[in-house]
Every structure is written in structure tokens, then in C-alpha cells.
Amino acid sequence: MKIIIAGAGAMGSRFGLMLHQAKNDVIFIDGWQEHIDKINRDGLEANFNGEKVVAKIPTYHQEKASEIDFAADLIIVFTKAMQLDHMMDCVKTMIGEQTKVLCLLNGLGHEDIIEKYVSKDHILLGNTMWTAGLEGPGKAKLFGDGYLELQSLDENGEATAEKVIAVLNEAKLNAKYSHHILESIYRKACVNGTMNGLCTLLDSNMADFGETSAANQIVLSIVNEFANVAKHEKVELDSKQVLEQVRSCYNRDTIGLHHPSMYQDLIENHRLTEIDYINGAIVRKGKMYNVPTPYCAFLTQLIHCKEELLDAK
Ligand code: NAD
Asked: Measured from the CB, is residue 79 less than 6 Å from ligand 1?
């Protein structure tokens, strides 16, 4: 399959590398010049479960996308949420009749952005539990296992989506079709909507935050705001199940001693966060549906203050 990875950061590198290893024709499109130059010069280097792997994957700057002659069957977008609109604008001329666009970003409402550029029958919306990191330009760190679920936005699109799923599975990406993708997306956004912002602002790992006396009440309030908004989108978010998932993040023997990715992006690397697409999305949707969301609103504002204080880019 001819595949474009639009946004070849940590996750784009993982998916691109695994699809390339499974003999697909893969190209990268990205906006980070140093990263693009390094990959084109030395190949993408990955620490892949402890083994050094180098892959020659042609990599282009997003601003030159309209000049690339590549009839893609699949475009996997893997930007950060706030970069998605511009990336779609860059790659829009590469979308043909046969092209599907798969979105696996964290957060809510990405389908509204993608639909500005391409009709529903081209769009696959998904959610992934794979993880990835970047150690520097052209250098990825890919550990562990994962899976993904996806759904076509076209109600008659399941059969075509299955062809994409087969290609993803040949690359060992463990994909399956979901008939309730919004539910999974909301559940993950809700877990991120508690741990990410709070641990970032409080400069805390997840286990230490979980042991504070107010943790339970704050988390419960945020989860209820997500659940109340989700109802208006025909999504029944099981608050009990989400709370269990949040509490499992406090476990010191598994992931509790880690800081969430938002902490790494903002506090360690002074990069802008995806807060507007997590808690911020709940605030916007809450206004639309007349649902109060004071905790999400306050958290979103505080994260933006921190971004300004750190001059995040
Ligand atoms: P990323 O920050 O690694 O990459 C996103 C874009 O930012 C890429 O275009 C990349 O080239 C660019 N970029 C990265 N570092 C840069 C730097 N130092 N300077 C300039 N540009 C830079 O993002 P990601 O972790 O691949 O995440 C993509 C999407 O997938 C997000 O929505 C994220 O929430 C989601 N996601 C991430 C993970 C994960 O483990 N990383 C897991 C599941 C979902």
C-alpha cells in the first residue's frame, strides 16, 4: 500500500517504520527541518525494543507537499492536535478518490478539522494504545506493545476500512474495527484530561498526586464533566470504569512513578500542549450543550498560563 505519514514525530516514526518493515511504500511528511534532513541523510534510527534499526524512508517538508507525486492509498495523520489543521491544508492536494485519511491523535473533535478538507467517506477515526518517544532529530525510541481501534465515518465504510486494518495487521500494529470509536476516544481523553494537566501543574508524578487528599474529589469532578458532555454526543462514558483506569495510573509498580507526556512536553521541553483538544474541548462542547465545566475550564486556563510563563513553542 502507498502510505503517507503526515507528522513523523514519535508516533509517526513508529507507524512509518513498522509499515515500511512490512514492505509498504511509505513516505514521511513533516515540518521539523532538522528531523527531515537527518532522516534523509542517515535514515530514521530507532531503538526498537532494544535493537538498533535504521530505515531509509523518503521524508519531505510539509510546505512542499503539493509538489510530491505520490498517489497515496492511506494518509495517517500523526501531528500534535494543534498542528493538524495546517498539516491537512498542506496535504490536501495529495488526497485522491482512493485515499483514506486515518486519524489516531489523542483528544476530541479532530474529525471536524479533517472534514474541512475531505468528505466523511474518506475518514477513519481511531484510538491507539501504542506509545513512542523521540530522543532527538531522526532518532526514535520504540518500546513495548500496543493496539488500535478505528471506525469509518461513513456508515457503509466498514469493508473498505477492513482493507486498511489488514495492512496495519501485516505490520503487527494490532488493529481492529470498532463500532463505538467515540466511546474509546472519550475514555482515553478523560484519563488524559485528569492526569496530564494536573500532574503538569502540580509538578508531580501520578502516584504522588494520587495520594494527595484532594485527588479523588478533583478527578471525580473532571470525569463527571466529561461524562455529562459525552451524553450529548450519544456517548455513555462509564464514570466508574474511567475512575478505575485513572486510579490504575497511581500504581507505583507499573506507571505511577512516571510523569504524563504533557509534563514532558511543557515542563521539560517547553512545547505547547494539546490541552485545547482535551479539557478545552469539553469546555467548548459544554458551552454548546449548556453543560457547566468549571474544572476543565480552570485547568485549561492554568495550562495556558504555564505555557506563557515558559514561553512554550
Ligand atoms: P511528537 O511531538 O513526537 O510529533 C508531532 C510533530 O511535532 C511531528 O511533526 C514532529 O516532527 C514535531 N516535533 C517533535 N519534536 C519536535 C521538536 N523538538 N521541534 C520541532 N518539532 C518537533 O508527537 P507524538 O508523540 O508523535 O504524538 C502525535 C499524536 O499522537 C498526539 O496527538 C499524541 O497525543 C498522540 N499519541 C502519542 C503517544 C505517544 O506515546 N507519544 C501515544 C498515543 C497517542
From this structure: yes
Helices (H), the chain: 10-21, 33-42, 84-91, 110-114, 158-170, 181-202, 206-210, 215-231, 239-248, 261-263, 279-289, 294-309
Considering the candidates 38, 80, 100, 188, report the single residue annotated as catalytic: 188
Among 33, 80, 106, name the best residue to mutate to test ligand 1's pocket (greatest count of ligand atoms within 8 A of Cβ).
Answer: 80
pLDDT digits (tens, 9 = 90+) for 155-174: 999 999 999 999 999 999 99
Give pairs for 51-59: CB < 8 Å, separation 24+: 53/17, 53/21, 55/16, 55/17, 55/20, 55/21, 57/16, 57/17, 57/20, 57/26, 57/27, 57/28, 58/27, 58/28, 59/8, 59/27, 59/28, 59/29, 59/30, 59/35
**pTM score:** 0.97
- For residue 143, the surrounding DSSP H or E stretch is none
Tell me 90's DSSP state. Answer: H
CA of 214 to the centre of ligand 1 (A): 31
Q: How far is CA 34 from the centre of its chain?
A: 22
Ligand 1 centre from 166 Cα, in Å? 25
Instruction: Tell me if residue 23 is catalytic.
Output: no
Please write the tens of the pLDDT for every residue from 112-139. Answer: 999 999 999 999 999 999 999 999 999 9
